[in-house]
Each structure stands twice: as structure tokens, then as C-alpha cells.
């Protein structure tokens, strides 16, 4: 926590509580964000300056400093960088720096160009996790003092614009659960899991599993509380929408329910061993055609029966023995790819499981 | 590559070097792509000299191409199963491919003999399959919607081991000695595979929405140290198994529309995550139809892509990190009404080694 002390003295903007590395940058920020005339975009130097400019040049009154926090919008106060900040606010800010955990949202600087979308901020109904606070919420009760969110909230200066949407509060999460202190400051070097296992992932103590509390209280394999009603994807708020069916199950599960995909082709039902793919060309074409025309189900079954019949004629290929050489040409629906197929050289046919594949042969053998 | 017609909506006035609106990144197109959406992609392991790409599809088939240095893809073989394919993976010596399917089985495809054989059985469709090679055992790990994770030696019809999951398996990754499984209801479980597979830790999800994809990353010593988890809410969490500092774990947003003037935003699922085998940087692909390259250590985006006409469903790097493959097809994110079977599915190949180099540190 030594790092924090250093940051305590950082200049910050009275209007929006953002912290800066340097007072020069703070001043640039204030000119651009708070003292810019919305009509002619001229950058003024102070709130009163802006007010006077608008009055004189554009004949408009400005009663609030643009982009300011609700209680910090007073345009009368003359603030330039860190100069002119009311003493009480200075003290309050210091106090929060030092880790009053009532700071919560207040000193959470907004990421510079964060879009005003409400993904996290506007999802009051959404599930919350300790350590994943939307802006504006208090830290979880378990958070020890001295861990005010503020200091770790800064966008790293090297942050690329592409990452700008990373909300600062996301920087802390992943703690196993509320039963452990979120930040075991008593054990300075360890993270929650770290004491139990080496970084090399080796020693596994039973304690590691058992002591990770929150997710284990659900017996494995048991049906979840909501399993009889279909869980839905929580909405993200008015300003954004998750492009996903409303059911909170995977896209693949939804898709797999479709009739088109549930028609499991009866390849060789009661057969524990090989689903052989070898077949004659005309058969391949037949099956291929049948599969493409999913509507022609009868035809397909026909083809499959035919296929099965063929398979029986060929006998059951056994696991370690290869098929007759003449059968190497592709599977049942190989027709479109067939011209390109490289039949394995005879020496490789019927080899055992670990032989190299003919694929490693140069084309044209 | 040159006989592809785009579907009517390509702009006539485009100059001839732009192949079509379907390929905005002008990457190499894999020939004879699957007839239905692509569900899985996997490059052959480093044990093979050449690069082979395998893709499983909802058209019930698995295809294999050889990818030449020139970017040309040569169809090599194809295998059909009775039901849609959900995942594929290679065995470590590159001689076989495992095929996880909606028919509740996993089959092994012996590429030499072009035979398939069932090696795993579940009570529901099998969503993931991964080959585990450890010094003292090898096996296939399968995760299913029947809420189990099973381990198979591929010779016995019974699993060596079966582990119950709290929910249906949605995504998994294996990098010995670590495995991660993400399930429905946002469960996340880490397994350690040394000796025998066993649960290592259950982690409270860092994400608030459905888990969709997970990929393990390594530290500088090339040992697995954490994972990236993607959700349907356009967000990826970078998590260390044992973070030195709570700040090491973070999440970032991705695959979202740029807000319209009134700030409204569409948020898309992160469909797949892959780590570059050399640089340790990562790629994400999303339902929005784009891929992005990221540097998790510098926390920067290295490159965004243009938007494709359909979602990007899966991605993969080849073993030496020269080729980035990504599959463009419908992922059902807008329901079946938006499924247009006549739209072509694409797999593109992109030379990516330089684009994924981490930012030089400042």
C-alpha cells in the first residue's frame, strides 16, 4: 500500500473528481471538459470566465459548469487546476484518499472516453458480485479499510484507445468469495489461492477446494434452483441490448433443438464399434444428395439403409486393421472433395494406431 | 479464391482487388467450406510438418484441408457423422482427430485409414473434447450437456473417470497440467491433471453473463498460469489461477457496436478466444462479425477487424503462430428467423505473426 501514499498527492479535478498525473494535464482537462464554450468551442480558463464569455459574446447565461458532478457545478467559484478548491473539499478528498470506505463512487474517476452506455451502471436488477461494483455502488461490506477503490482506478496512461471501454472497477474481481477477506492484507504476499498451491500448479491440498466457498454449496450434478423454469438473460438496461436469444442457455443448445439438427442420421445404431466411412462412390453421391435435401427424409433413410447394407457386406472393420485398399477413397459424402483426396500409400494401410497419417505424405504420391 | 461470387449485395464499383464484401479483411479463403455453420476449428499439432486444418460443422461433417505456405488450402478428406459436430481436436501425434457430436458420442477419425470409431459416450450432446497428454497417461477429456466431464483412454467403452459438473458444460480448455471448464449458470471450475485429473478450485465467475468460451494462457516460462473467459455479453475476463495481485485479473469489453448517436449499443457474444502460441497475445471473435487481437499484458487492442457479413464463430492459430484461421457463419445469436441457409460459410486464413506481436513496452 505504499503506492497509494504516493498517489494521494495527485492533482484532481474539483468538478469531476478525476485524478491526474500532473497539474498541467489537469488544467488541460478542465479547459477542455469544463471551461469550453459549447457554442464556439473556445476554451476559457475558469468557470466565471466561461460564464462571462458566454454572456458577452453569445448573450447566453451559463448556470452550471459543463460535465461536472451535481454538487460541483457552481460556476461562480473560480478554480484553476488545484487552485481555488474550497478547503473543506480538499480535506474531504484527502480523507477519501486515505481510505474512508464511504468513498465508493465519489472518487471513481470516469475512464476518459467511456461511452455513456449503461451496461454496468444501469443494471440494477443484474446479479452483483462482491468485487464487481457498478459505479455508484458502495464497496462490499467485507472490504477492509485502506482499500478504497480510488487509487487503483486509474486508466493506465498507456492504455490504448481500443481498450477505453474497460471500466475501472473491473480491475478487481476474481476473489473466490465473501467468506475470505477480499484482500488478505494480513498475509502480504499471498493471494487467496496462493497459500495453498504453488504457482507451478503442483501441490493440491484438499483445503484449496473446500475452502473456496461460494460455488461449492451446490451439489454437483443436482438440478439448479431455476431448472424447471427457463432462466433468461438479464437485460442490460435501456441503452444497450445483448444480441442473444432471451433464454439463458447456449446458442448451440438452442440450435440443436431444431428439427433439422435433431434428426440424427441412424448411422449404425446398435453398434459399438467402427462407424466405417468407406463406401462406394455412387453411394457417396446418393448420401450426399440425400443429406443436402433435408426435406426428402424418406430418400435419406433409404440411402442410409442402403449404406448400412453396404457396410454389412464389407464386414466389420476392426479397430487396428485398415480397410481394403480400394476403400480408402473417402467417406459417404465425400463426393465434392474427392478429386483432391490423396489415398494413403499401401504401406500405411492397416497400420496400428500410432503410425503417421498419409496426410504427411507430399501431395501426389 | 477467385471464383467466389458474393451474394448479390457486393458493391459493383469496388475495384477488382477487393474479392467481395464477404471477405473485408482480404484474407485467404479456404476452398470448399462446410455447407452449414462451422462449429469448430483446429490446426494440426507441431508434430506434423505441414499444417492441416480441421473444421467440424452443423452439416454433420468434419473436413480436413492441407494449408500450404502460399495460403492455398487443399481439401484432403471429409468424414460424416450422424449428427451436428460441436467440437474437434487433434491427438498429439497428429494421426487422428476426435469429433464431438450432438449424437452424444465422440468418435476418433484415423486419418491414415479414414476410419472412424466411437471412443466416448455421454447421455447428452458432447460440447467439448480435448486430448490430454501427460507424462504418465494420455486420455481424451469430454464435456457434455449431461453435466459430466469424462476421461477416456479411447480403447475402453467405459470412461476412466467421470466428474460431475454443477451444470452443462459450455466451454473448456486443456493445457497440461491445467484444465478449465465453464458451464451453464456461470460456473467455472479449474482442474489439475497431474497424476490424475482432479478438481483444483471452483472460481466465482468474474462475468455476469453466460460463459461461452475459455482459453488457457501461459506465463513467460510457458507454464499454464491463467485463462481468458468470454461471455455472451461482449466481455472477456483475464484471470490468473494464483494472481500475485488482485489487480492482475481484469475484464474488458469487446464485440459491441459503436454506440449510435443516442448511445444505444448492441452487445454481441464472444464466440471464441485463442492465444497466440509464440507471443502470448490473444484473438477474440464475436457474433458481431469481427475478430480482434489483444495484448493482455499491455491491456491494449492490437488490431480490430472489419465486420464480416455473418458472425465469426471460431478461430484458431496454427502451431507456430503464423496462421490465424477464423470461421464466418451463423451462430444462432439472433434466433432461427435470422438463419439463412443459402448464405455461404467461410473459413479465412490470415498471416498473423507480426500483427500479434506484443507492443514494445514503454
TrEMBL record, chain A:
GO terms for cellular component: nucleus. Residues 92-144, 206-228 are annotated as: Disordered. One of its GO terms (molecular function) is zinc ion binding. It comes from the Eukaryota. It is found in: Nucleus. Coiled coil: none annotated. Residues 206-226 have a biased composition (Polar residues). Residues 6-65 form the BED-type domain. Residues 132-144 have a biased composition (Pro residues). Keywords: Metal-binding, Nucleus, Zinc, Zinc-finger. This is BED-type domain-containing protein.
UniProtKB/TrEMBL annotation, chain B:
This is Mitotic checkpoint protein and poly(A)+ RNA export protein. SUPFAM superfamilies: WD40 repeat-like (SSF50978). Belongs to the WD repeat rae1 family. Its main location: cytoplasm. Residues 1-21 have a biased composition (Polar residues). Transmembrane segments: none annotated. GO terms for biological process: cell division. WD repeats lie at residues 31-68, 78-119, 119-162. Pfam families: WD40. Residues 1-34 are annotated as: Disordered. PANTHER family: MRNA EXPORT FACTOR AND BUB3. It comes from the Eukaryota. Keywords: Cell cycle, Cell division, Cytoplasm, Mitosis, Nucleus, Repeat, Transport, WD repeat. The lineage of its organism: Eukaryota, Metazoa, Ecdysozoa, Arthropoda, Hexapoda. GO terms for cellular component: cytoplasm; nuclear envelope. It is found in: Cytoplasm; Nucleus. InterPro entries: WD40/YVTN_repeat-like_dom_sf, WD40_PAC1, WD40_repeat_CS, WD40_repeat_dom_sf, WD40_rpt.
Amino acid at each position: 500500500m505504499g503506492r497509494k501514499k504516493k498517489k494521494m498527492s495527485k492533482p484532481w479535478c474539483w468538478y469531476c473528481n478525476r485524478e491526474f498525473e500532473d497539474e498541467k494535464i489537469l488544467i488541460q482537462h478542465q479547459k477542455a471538459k469544463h471551461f469550453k464554450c459549447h457554442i464556439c468551442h473556445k476554451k476559457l480558463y475558469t468557470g466565471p470566465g466561461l460564464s462571462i464569455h458566454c454572456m458577452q459574446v453569445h448573450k447566453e447565461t451559463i448556470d452550471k459548469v459543463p460535465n461536472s458532478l451535481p454538487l460541483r457545478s457552481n460556476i461562480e467559484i473560480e478554480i484553476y487546476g488545484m487552485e481555488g478548491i474550497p478547503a473543506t473539499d480538499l480535506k474531504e478528498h484527502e480523507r477519501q484518499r486515505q481510505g474512508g470506505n464511504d468513498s465508493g463512487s465519489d472518487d471513481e474517476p470516469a475512464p476518459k472516453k467511456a461511452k455513456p452506455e449503461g451496461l454496468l451502471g444501469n443494471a440494477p436488477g443484474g446479479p452483483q458480485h462482491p468485487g464487481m461494483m457498478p459505479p455508484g455502488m458502495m464497496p462490499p461490506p467485507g472490504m477492509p479499510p485502506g482499500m478504497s477503490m480510488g487509487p487503483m482506478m486509474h486508466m493506465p496512461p498507456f492504455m490504448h484507445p481500443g481498450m477505453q471501454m474497460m471500466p475501472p472497477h473491473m480491475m478487481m474481481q476474481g476473489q473466490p468469495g465473501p467468506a475470505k477477506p477480499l484482500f488478505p492484507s494480513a498475509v502480504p504476499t499471498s493471494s487467496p489461492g496462493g497459500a495453498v498451491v504453488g504457482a507451478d500448479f503442483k501441490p493440491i491440498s484438499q483445503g484449496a477446494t473446500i475452502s473456496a466457498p461460494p460455488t461449492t454449496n451446490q451439489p454437483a450434478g443436482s438440478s439448479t434452483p431455476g431448472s424447471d423454469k427457463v432462466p433468461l438473460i438479464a437485460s442490460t438496461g435501456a441503452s444497450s441490448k445483448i444480441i442473444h436469444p432471451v433464454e439463458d442457455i447456449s446458442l448451440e443448445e438452442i440450435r440443436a433443438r431444431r428439427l433439422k439438427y435433431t434428426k440424427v442420421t441412424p448411422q449404425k445404431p446398435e453398434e459399438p464399434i467402427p462407424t466405417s466411412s468407406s463406401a462406394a462412390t455412387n453411394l457417396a453421391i446418393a448420401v450426399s444428395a440425400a443429406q443436402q435435401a433435408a426435406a426428402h427424409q424418406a430418400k435419406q433413410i433409404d440411402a442410409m439403409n442402403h449404406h448400412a447394407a453396404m457396410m454389412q457386406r464389407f464386414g466389420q472393420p476392426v479397430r487396428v486393421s485398415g480397410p481394403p485398399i480400394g476403400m480408402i477413397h473417402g467417406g459417404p459424402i465425400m463426393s465434392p472433395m474427392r478429386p483432391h483426396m490423396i489415398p494413403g500409400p499401401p504401406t500405411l494401410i492397416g497400420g496400428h494406431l500410432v503410425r503417421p497419417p498419409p496426410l504427411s505424405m507430399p501431395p501426389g504420391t | 479464391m477467385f471464383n467466389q461470387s458474393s451474394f448479390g449485395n457486393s458493391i459493383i464499383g469496388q475495384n477488382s482487388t477487393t474479392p467481395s464484401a464477404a471477405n473485408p479483411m482480404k484474407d485467404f479463403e479456404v476452398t470448399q467450406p462446410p455447407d452449414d455453420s462451422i462449429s469448430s476449428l483446429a490446426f494440426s499439432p507441431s508434430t506434423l510438418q505441414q499444417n492441416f486444418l480441421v473444421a467440424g460443422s452443423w452439416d454433420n461433417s468434419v473436413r480436413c484441408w492441407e494449408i500450404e505456405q502460399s495460403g492455398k488450402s487443399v481439401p484432403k478428406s471429409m468424414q460424416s457423422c450422424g449428427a451436428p459436430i460441436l467440437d474437434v481436436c487433434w491427438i498429439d501425434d497428429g494421426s487422428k482427430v476426435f469429433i464431438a457430436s450432438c449424437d452424444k458420442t465422440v468418435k476418433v477419425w484415423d486419418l491414415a485409414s479414414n476410419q472412424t470409431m466411437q471412443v466416448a459416450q455421454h447421455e447428452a450432446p458432447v460440447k467439448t473434447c480435448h486430448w490430454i497428454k501427460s507424462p504418465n497417461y494420455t486420455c481424451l477429456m469430454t464435456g457434455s450437456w449431461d453435466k459430466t466431464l469424462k476421461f477416456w483412454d479411447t480403447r475402453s467403452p467405459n470412461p476412466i473417470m467421470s466428474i460431475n459438473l454443477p451444470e452443462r458444460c459450455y466451454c473448456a480448455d486443456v493445457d497440461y497440467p491445467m484444465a478449465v471448464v465453464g458451464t451453464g449458470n456461470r460456473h467455472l471450475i479449474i482442474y489439475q491433471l497431474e497424476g490424475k485429473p482432479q478438481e483444483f478450485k471452483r472460481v466465482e465467475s468474474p462475468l455476469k453473463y453466460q460463459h461461452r468460451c475459455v482459453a488457457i494462457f501461459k506465463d513467460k516460462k510457458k507454464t499454464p498460469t491463467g485463462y481468458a473467459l468470454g461471455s455472451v455479453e461482449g466481455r472477456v475476463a483475464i484471470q490468473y489461477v494464483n494472481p500475485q495481485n488482485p489487480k492482475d485479473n481484469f475484464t474488458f469489453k469487446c464485440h459491441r457496436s459503436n454506440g449510435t448517436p443516442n448511445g444505444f449499443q448492441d452487445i454481441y457474444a464472444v464466440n471464441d478466444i485463442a492465444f497466440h502460441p509464440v507471443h502470448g497475445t490473444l484473438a477474440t471473435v464475436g457474433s458481431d462479425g469481427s475478430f480482434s487481437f489483444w495484448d493482455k499484458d499491455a491491456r491494449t487492442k492490437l488490431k480490430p477487424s472489419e465486420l464480416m457479413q455473418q458472425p465469426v464463430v471460431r478461430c484458431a492459430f496454427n502451431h507456430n503462430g503464423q496462421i490465424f484461421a477464423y470461421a464466418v457463419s451463423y451462430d444462432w445469436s439472433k434466433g432461427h428467423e435470422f438463419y439463412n441457409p443459402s448464405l455461404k460459410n467461410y473459413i479465412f486464413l490470415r498471416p498473423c505473426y507480426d500483427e500479434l506481436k506484443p507492443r514494445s513496452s514503454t
